[in-house]
Amino acid sequence: MQELGVTITDTPPADAVVIPTGDYMKAALEETCQRFGIEYPKHLAIAVQDHGYSPDMSNRKFRFLHMRKTLENGNWDISSLIQDPPSPPSMTRMQAILETEPDALVMDTGAAAVLGALQDPVVEAAREHGVTIVNAGNGHTLAFTIQGDEICGGVFEHHSRVLINNGSCRDYLAKLRNGTLTNEEVFDDHGHGGAAVHRACDSCLVAVTGPNRREILPDAYQAAPHGDMMLTGCFGLLSTWMQTRTPP
Known about the structure:
Layout: H1 26-35, E1 45-48, H2 59-73, H3 92-100, E2 105-108, H4 109-117, H5 121-126, E3 131-136, E4 140-147, E5 150-159, H6 160-166, H7 169-178, H8 183-188, E6 195-197, E7 205-209, H9 213-216, E8 221-222, H10 232-244
Helix pairs in contact: 4-10
């Protein structure tokens, strides 16, 4: 950093403009709500994409190693996507939020998007026969194959721009469904993460959500839970809250 002219200090210079950063900026959100006359929520559900931290390997590899272990420990059940609270201290973004708001529901953005997409009636109807859900985000694309409550084929994660440029998403999805996609194949293609494959899955429907959905999979079913694609992750957070925090 010093070679770039950057100096890291514990305190800013007297003439510096301090710009706070973080995944959850409570003061700014409270001020925004106040300006619109909205009472600040008593309960919080927050999704972040957490790479995790490992001094021994690439964070891309570490994120997918954590994801595979999570799915394996949960017998590849879709409920394993919900960890409330998220426990590994190595998932630093999630832990940083919990340090500020210990009662918040915190989960991965990919998990929130998948659980939200399942609230689209077409996706939900295809669930028992098998469905591939793709969240084509601005930076990253995450895909799961699901049959019933089982994450059957598995999951893979790539950079959206790479998939747009080379048009390889459908090839990856086909390999994910037939159980032949490897972690190394995705990682070596500059994938954001990799792949965690369980078994072959007869997925009949490919459903896509997210801002890059038409760029990456224009012919797939364009999922829009409750009529709003841009709130897919929010609906996933709400459904998780109803499942984990609402008394029976």
